[in-house]
UniProtKB/TrEMBL annotation:
Residues 45-403 form the Acyclic terpene utilisation N-terminal domain. This is Acyclic terpene utilization AtuA family protein.
């Protein structure tokens, strides 16, 4: 299929996540073909801390670099720019952080876009009330919607579908910065708004959600999706990159346990009958995608802070220790726990000590294969978790002499394991945890979304 094929809605997806790197040449070289620019900016991949704290995973400089390219491209082409799940978590604070960067870019480059902001953070108290009213359902492995679970969250976000983006564009937005959104929805929004059938629109969005991850060179930029009346195509932006049938269809399994069904707000994408055909060495065409309407729900994500941690690290090359590493770690854990209880007593409060042997089984948590040779060395990580940062650090200091010098057996010469830092204790700060895996049942797609416009005057005077 030629790039200029009539009747398609073309969305330029510059990267898998705002802040990981946008190639300016790729974007501007393909800009004339696009009806919109859209990409994701968030994830739960890196754990609950970004939602609980409202802080972004990527640096301000990296996000500004990418957003500057996209805003200048939007201004040049006069097409919509959509960014979903701003600031990693998509909470209100993260969205405002991204808004401020956008206003700064606009001021520096003399741009005057109309920017829509879509807020989807929810009050824990409001969601507690919704749970009491039976409007929230658990997803596995959760088994209930206990209202107290929602009240205990520091922050809750509801994942938006495409409808708030479409509404904002119809109200005249040039740029839409969204709170927490499904990765797929932000890419499907403009094709759906322009009349594309939902099956191809949603499926194209799913395949392109991570930019070039659906190509043979997953670290090289983005892709262009073209959604037609009964199909879509996907093509890398980079001239030397390729999409293949395998790289395209396999992306249905990315963050999705079912290779054929994907649950989205308002329905289920069904690709059971999808056919993938290479158009040439770079482009793949897909037909047969269906979208099955369902009652509208929005997934809820919630997180909270639960304690504080302090770390210590040693490197161990002692052959005797490495030959019996599991027993050594179990023994050390008993020694350290006993020392804290005997030395600090009630002042330690509720605490936990974790020892993780990187180089042995710290990643998998599984015992080494029987008969496997001992590791050449391990990095032994000490993690103290307590109710306050001060308590966690005092626990680490209490354990310090034993952690660095514990022999494998009584009577052995006192060893010294290698420590990389001085002081040895590294305060990690607050520990966070996810609290929710639920969906909320809404009467319409915009019920839990608040839309605000940062108008031209705000940009000029920011």
């Amino acid at each position: 299929m030629p790039p200029s094929a009539p009747g398609t809605v073309n969305v330029l997806v510059p990267c898998g996540a705002l802040g990981i790197g946008v190639k300016e040449a790729d974007v501007f070289d393909r800009l004339a073909e696009a009806h919109a620019i859209a990409c994701d900016a968030g994830s739960t991949d890196s754990g609950p801390a970004y939602l609980a704290t409202g802080q972004a995973k990527y640096s301000r400089d990296s996000v500004k670099h990418d957003l500057s390219i996209l805003m200048r491209a939007q201004a040049k082409a006069g097409i919509p720019l959509l960014i979903g799940s701003c600031g990693t978590s998509g909470c209100d604070e993260a969205l405002d952080w991204t808004r401020d960067i956008a206003l700064e870019i606009a001021r520096e480059h003399g741009l005057r876009p109309r920017i829509a902001l879509l807020y989807s953070e929810q009050s824990p108290q409001t969601m507690q009330a919704w749970a009491k009213a039976g409007r929230i359902s658990p997803l596995a492995p959760m088994t209930d919607s206990d209202p107290q679970r929602f009240a205990a969250c520091d922050r809750i976000v509801a994942l938006m579908g495409p409808e708030p983006y479409i509404a904002a564009l119809r109200e005249g937005a040039d740029i839409v910065l969204g709170g927490r959104t499904t990765d797929t929805a932000v890419l499907a929004a403009v094709p759906l708004m322009r009349g594309a059938p939902p099956g191809p629109a949603w499926h194209a969005g799913k395949i392109a959600e991570c930019g070039s991850l659906c190509t043979v060179r997953p670290r090289e930029g983005g892709v262009m999706i073209r959604v037609g009346s009964d199909h879509f195509t996907v093509e890398p932006l980079g001239a030397h990159n390729q999409c293949t049938v395998e790289t395209v269809y396999s992306h249905m399994l990315y963050e999705n346990s079912d290779p054929f069904l994907l649950h989205e707000p308002g329905g289920i994408l069904d690709v059971t009958a999808a056919q993938y055909v290479p158009i040439d060495e770079r482009i793949v065409r897909v037909t047969g995608s269906k979208f099955l309407p369902q009652p509208y729900t929005m997934k809820l994500e919630g997180a909270r802070g639960t304690g504080y941690q302090t770390l210590m690290l040693v490197g161990i090359q002692d052959r005797d220790v490495l030959a019996d590493i599991d027993r050594f770690i179990a023994h050390m854990h008993d020694v350290l726990t006993t020392r804290v209880r005997e030395t600090m007593g009630p002042r330690a409060g509720e605490f936990d000590i974790s020892l993780r042997a990187y180089g042995s089984n710290a990643v998998s948590g599984l015992p080494p294969t029987e008969g496997a040779p001992p590791p050449r060395e391990v990095g032994l990580l000490f993690v103290a978790t307590a109710e306050t940062q001060q308590a966690a650090t005092q626990i680490a200091k209490t354990c310090n002499p034993w952690f660095f010098h514990l022999p494998l057996r009584p009577g052995m010469e006192l060893p010294s394991y290698a420590f990389p830092f001085s002081p040895a204790e590294v305060e990690r700060g607050r520990v966070c945890e996810f609290m929710l895996n639920h969906v909320v049942h809404v009467d319409h797609p915009l019920e839990l979304v608040r839309t605000r416009f940062a108008d031209v005057a705000e940009v000029a005077h920011a």
